[in-house]
Amino acid sequence: MNIEFTARRVKLSPKVREIMEKKLEKLSKVLPADAQAHVIVRAEKLGVAVEVTIVGRQGTWTATEVGDDQEKASYAVLDRITAQAKKAKGKNREEKKHRTSAVRASTMSESSVEKTEKKKAAEPRVGARREKVAARPMFEEDALNAFTGQNRQILVFRDPANDAFRVLYRRRDGSLGLLIPT
Questions:
Q1: Alpha-carbon distance 138 to 161, whole Å?
Q2: Can you say whether the dihedral through the CA atoms of 6, 12, 13, 14 is positive or negative?
Q3: Of 44, 72, 82, 169, whose CB has the highest number of CB atoms within 10 Å?
Q4: Which H or E run contains 54?
Q5: At what angle do helices 14-27 and 70-98 cross, to 10 degrees?
Q6: Model confidence at 165, in pLDDT bands (50, 70, 90)?
Q7: pLDDT tier at 112, thresholds 50, 70, 90
Q8: What are residue 61's phi and psi, to 5 degrees?
Q9: Do the beta carbons of residue 46 and residue 27 sit within 8 Å?
Q10: Cβ-Cβ contacts under 8 Å for 145 (sequence gap 6 or more)
Q11: Separation in Å, CA 131 to CA 50, 127, 135
Q12: Residue 130: helix, strand or coil by DSSP?
């Protein structure tokens, strides 16, 4: 792992450099081999801030900690980076665990693939958005006027002549449609 150090308004302690190199070397087991680390140590009003950014092919991990001295802040920031890296590694393992291997996918018969697709298509999808609306009685012209004044996609109303439901909806192309159940 390539580590780059930057010190702003403070002199970088050799102890901090040693701590960072040692801990980041241990983290290389969890992080990608080609990861680049950038450590910034800067003076703050309340002490010293240490910021570590690690860029790898799987993602970017960043953490900043402020402490009384450089060593305390560096230990704290390394703990946060370690937690982020372990979490990312765990997610990667979970994704691999649930993926179908190429060998297994080729041995699956066409019929079993078709069955699972049909099963998925047969299951009704319920949208996350639900509303309770009172279907007021109104004529089609009144419903059209009320619908064009609103920003909704669907309007449900009752036909006063026969008390049947009607659904006025907006198509994707912007035109309107009317559903009349039989």
A1: 9
A2: positive
A3: 82
A4: strand 47-56
A5: 10
A6: confident
A7: low
A8: -120, 130
A9: no
A10: none
A11: 50, 11, 12
A12: coil
